[in-house]
Amino acid sequence: MNDTILKAENLCYTYEADDRPALDGLSLELHRGKKIACMGSNGSGKSTFFLCCNGILRPDSGTVYYNNLPLDYSKKGLLNIRSKIGIVFQDPDNQLFSASVAQEISFGPMNLGFSESDTRQMVSDIMEKLGITPFAHKPVHALSGGQKKLVAIADILVMRPELIIFDEPAAALDPLHTELVHDIIGQVTKEGITVLMATHDVNYAFEWADEILVFHNGKLLDSGSPDEIFSNDTLLETASLKPPIVLSILKNPEILNTYSCKRKHTFTHSL
User: Fold this and answer.
1) For the chain, which domains are there?
2) Contact by Cβ (8 Å): 193, 36
3) DSSP 71
4) In sequence order, which residues have a C-beta less than 8 Å from that of residue 103 and are 6 or more positions away?
5) pLDDT per residue as tens digits for the range 25-69
6) C-alpha dihedral, 250 to 254 to 258 to 264, nearest 10°
7) pTM here?
8) Contact at 8 Å (CB) between 33 and 194?
9) 126-156 burial, b if ≥16 CB within 10 A, otherwise e?
């Protein structure tokens, strides 16, 4: 059985205002049911690739395949692919547009042709699951940043996708909402949904991911397990990544002693 859920083949894309391509012959495969961290410096092509995955952007050349079939850019084809591949944007204000939370989450199922009663039940279920039922009739613009992020995730989950893309899901969130979002992502992966996540948090990526994709200058620089990627010092330097703290400590135990001394000094000074 072919476990490839999405494949990019030699994707190229250049924004009108730019001289340098955002994607420059990008090729990769995503495997079904995996937790995949997408890493690289800003401008390396991650977000542009995400937008190509469900047809928001159409590459200048190259092909995106979903379940071994090339993306269909007709209206019907795009509606279908966006029900299967959902993107949670880094800034939820770029995603949310309805007057109330319930209306916002209802938009996807209604657009897919679900009945009003079925949509109401789907929305109720997902709001309860994410703990946002108290916000159901609240204006979207009145929510906090963390609450907006939860609604943006509900927007996607309510359509029961097979692949969810998170673009920096913890960006600008407080610790409480960061933990909530990470817990939701953990539950999503347990349900067998493939998750692709852009993150700069090397410690979280090392602990969470099955596979890491490293982007650089619009290309896939390398891919592999967290151990393989983070043990390659040359790769990390090229991609402007640092090793996770646990590997740094294993290589140099003095880091832990230095950290402990700093904590002790800070505590003593505060007294």
Assistant:
1) 4-97+156-240 (3.40.50.300), 244-271 (no CATH)
2) no
3) P
4) none
5) 999 999 999 999 999 999 999 999 999 999 999 999 999 999 999
6) 90
7) 0.89
8) yes
9) bbeebebeebeebebeebeebbbbbbbbbbb
